[in-house]
Amino acid sequence: MAAGPDFALFESTKFMETPARNQRLIPLWERMFPTLRVSRGRTIGTALLILALAAPIRAGSILREVFEGISGNAISDLTSSPDYPNNPSFTELVTDFFEAPTDVLEQYGQRLHGYIVPPVTGNYTFWIASDDNGSLLLSTDETPAKARQIAQVPEWTSSRQWDKYPQQQSAPINLQANKPYYISALMKEGGGGDNLAVGWLRPGGVDERPIPATYLLPWGTAFTPPAISQQPTNTTAIEGQLATFVVKVTNVDPVSVQWRRNGADIPSGIGFVLNYGPVTLADEGANFGAVLTNRIGSTNSTLATLHVLPDTTKPVLVSAVNLGADRIQVVFSEPVEAASANLGSNYSVSGGIGVTSATVDTDPRIVVLTVNPLTFAQNYTVTVRGIRDRAHTPNTVIPESATSFLALELVSQGIGLSGGSITRLGSGGFQVTGAGSGANGASDEVQFAWEQRTGNFDVRVRVDNVGVTDPYVQAGLMARATLDTNSPFAAAFTSSAQVGSYFLSRNTPGGATVMASPRGGFPFNGRQTWLRLQRSSNTLTGYGSLDGATWTSLGSASIALGSPVYVGLAVSSRDTGTTTSARFLEYAPTVNPALGNIPVDREPLGPTTRRTGLVFSEIMYHPNPPLGVTNNLEFVELYNAGPVFEDLGGWELRGAIQFTFPPGYKIEAGAFVLVSADPAALQATYKVAGGLGPFTGSLNNSGERIALHDPFGALKLEVEYSPKPPWPVAADGSGHSLVLARPSFGSDDPRAWAASELIGGSPGFQDAIQPSPLRGVVINEFLAHTDDPQLDFIELFNSNRTPVALDGCVLTDDPTTNRFRIPVGTTLDGRGHVSFDQNELGFRLSSQGETIYLLSADGTRVLDALRFEAQENGVSSGRTPDGAPTVRRLVQPTPGAANTPWRQEDIVINEIMFNPISGEDDDEYVELLNRSANTVNLAG
Description:
By secondary structure, the protein is mainly beta. It folds into 8 domains: about 55 residues, no CATH class; about 160 residues, Jelly Rolls, CATH 2.60.120; about 80 residues, Immunoglobulin-like; about 80 residues, Sandwich (Immunoglobulin-like); about 180 residues, Sandwich (Jelly Rolls); about 140 residues, Immunoglobulin-like (Sandwich), CATH 2.60.40; about 120 residues, Lamin Tail domain (Immunoglobulin-like); about 35 residues, no CATH class. It has 4 helices and 71 strands. Strands 31, 34, 35, 37, 38, 39, 40 and 44 form an 8-stranded antiparallel beta sheet that branches. An 8-stranded mixed beta sheet has the order 32-33-45-36-41-42-43-46, with no helix packed on it. Strands 3, 4, 5, 7, 8, 10 and 13 form a 7-stranded antiparallel beta sheet that branches. The longest helix has 8 residues.
């Protein structure tokens, strides 16, 4: 049998129905096999050999062996099974992390084993998490017989729960770089959940839990001296360009490569690919080869010859971009000669902009021009002449070559990636688009829009929107020492609603990143997420804010960034294959910052049921359209509070409305999805994406049930909203929506819901907290049923301890009509009262019941709303003590003063039997209680 080195055979000493049940995985290059005749169920001598092609031996993976049908929770139950270790139920290669699938089987054991190859020399600490019993073994080399237990799970842990037992963590173990060590993780599961994962802490503080498969080799890997599968080949390169030579091996274990030119080591020539150059005519005929070495032996490649052709191509002007207001970066297609490129007279800029100097950059393809001040948001054209390349016989750029650019405050550049962009949205506003794995570990992949700053700085920005491609998506402010991927940096980032805002830093080139945040975290605040980054000498501090005025420290670090530094806006999708966009507004120096914490009366968005991580996060059931808008603006918003994306294809909204999600529609963890009655109308009115739709049916203003069902019809989520207290009254016709404010109560509990912060709600976004002194002003007492000379009145109370100005605020019983505007100059003291009677208000309240609204002066929000039913003559209703959440009948009216206690009635309903066990109506009853000492006549 013949096969390439990427395939393997399974060998066994006993007959098995399934070839995957194997004793050992044998690489085909390990030995020669004779021609065999195999009869099913019959032996050849004393053993039966079954051959089957298996999956390729793959670097960056580990072998998983599963043993089904074994009872018990202990590792000993697995290892004492007659099937262990030679007869697994099935095997597979795990290619992402040192982690087995979670919650997949019952009554089974498994082993993940192979080799781990440390990237650097030093002390490593290991962890294991498993359900149930788990054991982690590590050898002193690639030999399994030398493996010893270094950590264990004595009972069980949740998935990736690393700190439940002290035995889960190993002592520090010194390992050598690029040396393979045999490693094995065993787990035995009885019933319930199941998981298995292994993590480590690398030298330098890099915490990887679980361990990426990058550092793993599967059991069955053959360790041999370097075996070359592709030799270097002769190469032709043009003068001034790079020459590339490649060597490949069949080994999956580490192999080091040293390239040589004419027998001499090339100092930077390390790795399987050599990019040599820029080549000169003196390199013509040079020979290049590689010495390949591993811990077993070494070998030399064949030699390849380099041929160099003269450069006869003229340099081309590629692009130009401004670096601030007084510099322009000009890029050519190849390195240019300093003598001609450094002449300012060889450049001109449109608009009468003078060029005062020109300097070739450290990258010889780039020239930086110093110019007279540019005007941002204007287009300019750069024209060049007389610029020569660095060829032995120089070539000159085509005279009067030109390129244009739009002058922006920031320069957009990919750090470790390409393909990003920046769009100016007006003064201080930018849309930054990019991909990348993020700022993390020893190197970064982010899209960075930067400017250079010297000395100390203090800048802030409002993150108006960020597309959630991953719950850990990054958007925020960053300061970097250099534009290298491993540069020291400090950043104030925000992410999805699941993560919030935090401070991230790297103190040294290539060092580990360190995250910091306040105790309890700092919340993501929708379109009012503010970030700030401050430098004072070597101390860099990140801040978060809900309003851009009062700031909370996210964390700080001491970093020697030097000067100047690169400061600006950074974005990462945390997914190299997907781009995201972040909209930044009000990027500017920080003015008059105050430190403090703004009280928040909401919980973070989270699940409301155990059935799903999805929640109804916002419901607009009774919109109040702007003047002239007649379309239906009803919508329902869903949020994914779960840890992973959810495929909503085939899911349905039922009840008051009906809608089926299209096939393949995904909602990322931490993302929102909007379903509306009229997506086009919603987009036109609120200037946001209208989302999915239209749905059929309508959201009843009197309250109705909304439910979410999966494709199999199972109920996953439901809510039955109502316009009646204790449900938020402002959501019924004033223009506010219902927003999920306290999910821990569950979606059917009115206490879980609040009116949106602003009229119109926040469709497609988390409802942002809008701090205002007026938030503490409430309708405290009212009287609606009077006979002359007694007057109707409405009393306001300031629950804050500081005065607030009520100028222009509106009291009304119709949210579409401003019946009474509070006079200019009206100030309500802290813990103070103010009352307005019917003569001042210009209207009376209905004794049969209605709704009272207190609106902000700008008409953007209902500050408070009370809905009441028919009121007794002369009996006021209000909050007691002042500002309390509950409104009840009071002992007596006290307009403009502290409220009296609740009114106590002599006769009360004391007990109700509404559903007797007999099922007979005659057994129902109501019991009354006389709480007074006097007899009360109930006649009539």
